[in-house]
Design goal:
With 199 residues, the chain is an alpha/beta fold. A hairpin with a 2-residue loop joins β1 and β2.
C-alpha cells in the first residue's frame, strides 16, 4: 500500500504484475490474479499488520516501542519501494517535519523503477529533505546518470547519512539484497543493528 491515514475511504496500492519469464516460469501468481481483476470485482484483505508506524517529526514505533531519528536512510529493491514511499510521503506531507531522507532505489532495469515520477518530483519539491539515488543491475541506457551494479558499501558511504544515534536505516527488498548487500555494509559503516529495520 502507498496510502496514508489521510486517504479516508480508500486504500491505494502499487502492484507490479510479474509475468511468466525464463527466471520465473509461472510468474507471480498473486500479482497476475490482481492484474486480471475487472472494475467491480472484489478480493478479501486484512491488515494493517505492519511493525513500523511513523507518527511525526522523526518519532515512530517499531513493534510498539517508541523510537526517533533526525534522518532516515532508506534502501528499497523493486516493489520494496512501497513502504519507503509511505514513510517518506508522511514526512514530506508536513512542512514542520524536518526529518531528512536519503533513499537508494535498486532495480534490474530502468522501467522497473516504480513510482519514479513521484520520487523525482519529491527531489525537486523538497531538495533539503529528500534525496534519491537509483541503481540498476541488469541494464541501463547510455545516458544513465545514476549508479549501476548492486548495492554496496561505497554507494552507501557516498549517498546515505553517516551512522549516528539520530540516524535510522529502513530497508525493503529481496532477502538476498538485504542479507548480503545491505545489512553487512551498513554495519561495516558503523550503523548499529538496533538501528536497522527491514519491512
Amino acid at each position: 500500500p502507498i496510502s496514508s491515514n489521510f486517504d479516508v475511504g480508500c486504500v491505494k496500492f502499487v502492484i507490479k504484475a510479474y509475468r511468466p519469464n525464463a527466471r520465473f516460469p509461472r510468474g507471480g501468481k498473486m500479482s497476475q490474479h490482481l492484474d486480471s481483476l475487472q472494475i467491480g470485482d472484489t478480493i478479501d484483505m486484512r491488515g494493517p499488520v505492519g511493525e513500523f508506524e511513523y507518527i511525526a517529526n522523526g518519532k515512530f514505533f517499531i513493534d510498539g516501542e517508541e523510537c526517533s531519528a533526525n534522518s532516515f536512510n532508506m534502501i528499497a529493491g523493486g516493489t520494496g519501494i512501497t513502504p519507503a514511499m509511505q514513510v517518506a510521503a508522511e514526512v514530506l506531507r508536513h512542512p514542520e517535519d524536518t526529518t531528512q531522507i536519503s533513499l537508494i532505489f535498486a532495480c534490474r532495469e530502468e522501467n522497473d523503477l516504480l513510482m519514479r515520477s513521484t520520487l523525482d518530483e519529491w527531489v525537486e519539491k523538497f531538495p533539503d529533505k529528500f534525496k534519491v539515488e537509483y541503481i540498476l543491475s541488469d541494464g541501463w541506457p547510455k545516458d544513465w546518470k545514476y549508479s549501476t551494479g548492486f548495492v554496496n558499501k561505497e554507494l552507501f558511504e557516498k549517498k546515505l547519512h553517516k551512522s549516528g544515534d539520530d540516524v535510522y536505516n529502513l530497508m525493503c527488498g529481496p532477502p538476498i539484497m538485504l542479507d548480503k548487500g545491505c545489512t553487512p555494509n551498513l554495519v561495516a559503516l558503523g550503523h548499529s543493528k538496533q538501528r536497522i529495520f527491514a519491512f
